[in-house]
Amino acid sequence: MGIAILILMAIGVVLMLTRILPTAFALALLALGIAVISGAPLTGGKESILTGVLQNGAVTLAATMIAVLLGSWLGSLLDQTGIGGTLVRKIVEFGGERPAVVALGVFAVSILCGSITGSAPAAMLAGVVGIPAMIAVGLRPVAAAGTVLMGISAGSPLELPVWQFMSDALGAPVSEVRTVMIRLFPIALVVGIAYVLVQTRRGARHAWAVQLDRPKARIRRGDAPWYALATPLVPIVLALGLTVPIVPSLLAGVIYALLTTTKWGDLNERALRSLYKGFEVAAPPIALFVAIGMLLAAVKLPGAKTALTPIVSAISPAAPIWFVVVFAALVPLCLFRGPLNVFGLGAGVAGVLVTGGIYPMTAVVGLMASYNQVFGVSDPTSTQTVWAAQYAGVRPERSMLSTLPFTWVVGLGGMVLTAVLYL
Amino acid sequence: MNDLELAVGLLRDTPTHENRTGEQLRSWAQTALEYGDELAEGPDVETIHVIEREGGVRKGEVLLAEHQRGTVIVYTDALRRTEEVARSRGWSVTRESLRRAAVAHEVAHHRLDVRELNRRLGHTAARLGPFRLRGHVAGADEIAAHRFAHRRSGLAVSPLLLTAALAGRD
Ligand SMILES: [Zn+2]
Description:
The complex is a heterodimer of chains A (423) and B (170). Chain A has 423 residues and is mainly α. Helix content of chain A is 73%, strand content 1%. Chain A has one domain. Chain A has 19 helices and 1 strand. In chain A, helix 5 packs antiparallel against helix 6 and helix 8 packs antiparallel against helix 18. Chain A is globular and about 65 Å long. The model of chain A has no long low-confidence stretch (mean pLDDT 86). Chain B is of the alpha+beta class and 170 residues long. Chain B has one domain. Chain B has 7 helices and 6 strands. The mean pLDDT of chain B is 85. Classes of the chains: A mainly alpha (423), B alpha+beta (170). Chains A and B meet through helix 5, helix 7 and strand 1 of A and strand 3, helix 4, helix 5, helix 6 and helix 7 of B. The complex binds zinc ion (ZN). Chain A: Keywords: Membrane, Transmembrane, Transmembrane helix. Chain A: This is Transporter.
């Protein structure tokens, strides 16, 4: 029965890879298939297909969905109020004579954007002005895209919706997720800085280069006042420094952005407009989280659990050193919508690791967070990589080749950290 | 379109200038063009090593020349593309003058002093009482390099116009 589930998962991966099915639909179907194979009854209590998998599974990640929505709202506000653009413009004005300074500055802004919202919206927030600005001061296009991606990924250990996701998906308290993430952040930060310095080490690229079909995505926005530029720090300072829960931390950021940039008379309109834009931006991840919730419910069914746990436990290394070696070697499986993609089938795998008691909860959080660092930057099929690379005028695969050696190191660092601390 | 208008267009397309007034951009463009003229009057002192290579026509970018560790790389396929674009517009541009312009563009980047250019542009990034922090004007060095290349190459049309034509902005 376990083998049948694995075969089904493999089929699901193929369907996602070949893009026959969007990831969210594939995961929902996979959840149904796993429930059927593991012999769950159609109706009945918490372990039935209709109630357990579809009804309860759909809302498992409800808190995550709200966090993602609020992050997207704040992201839309940073864009519409000109806070994002102003930050990048200031960096170019202050550091433009030295490309490395501009790149490090855009990297820092990307960390802030990545701590608010994830994937393509975060990349756009930092990259719409940041990527052409870096190219204009002499960075290579592939390095400009990579700098933004490394930045938003370095910010993702601080991204409150990600904390909520790990907490909901694995059933870990937010405080434990926070502990893992705070320790992962310095690794991502240092390696990200190394990436930027290596890319700018040869100095500026002085060239006669003509950028073709530049997207006319840049809308003119006014300058935001200097005190509004602190907006991206508000949620993380509250959540990290004052241990305020995630939803109020993000709401405080929204209110701070509105009050510092918007006249009283325009408040309602801007708040609503940016909120609705936030819904639009959050639609793809929320669809995914509904499906992941169902998948998690399915792999936790008693039938699936007894079938999968022996298999997964047999192939999961127990010794810390082998934990690091094996899972670091498996890094490519989190790319191209593979089975270890944290925002895909990987969430189900993590669910099995936790419910089967194969590793301590914190170790699974660390493992998933490590994969997230690689996936978030290098996966040439993820929306942020595709957007950033194409906006810079390079192929996403080239962006992957440029960043993967660095993100693999971050992933490895996260796994070593996990093994040392939690195994 | 004259060079000043083309230079204003180039600045307008450079990120960070979205909110500047036309008057401001015009004044910066003028200063950058004059700086390019001034550089072109100076004597040639350095010897530059030039190599030619294919591979300048890429997805999303046409790279005519670049400067790496004292060596200028000229991309021959990009020069051919530029020649075609120029011919389709009825401009008489020879391959040789195009090549000279590409090399001169890189010499200009090598020679121009971004700090000095920014000083002349006089953009204030921040002000705290009597203290002013000079700001960088992205794209101004490119204008100066184009003007320098035009003076040095004897091209029939301005490199600014060729650049705009390649990008489809003319
Ligand atoms: Zn140039």
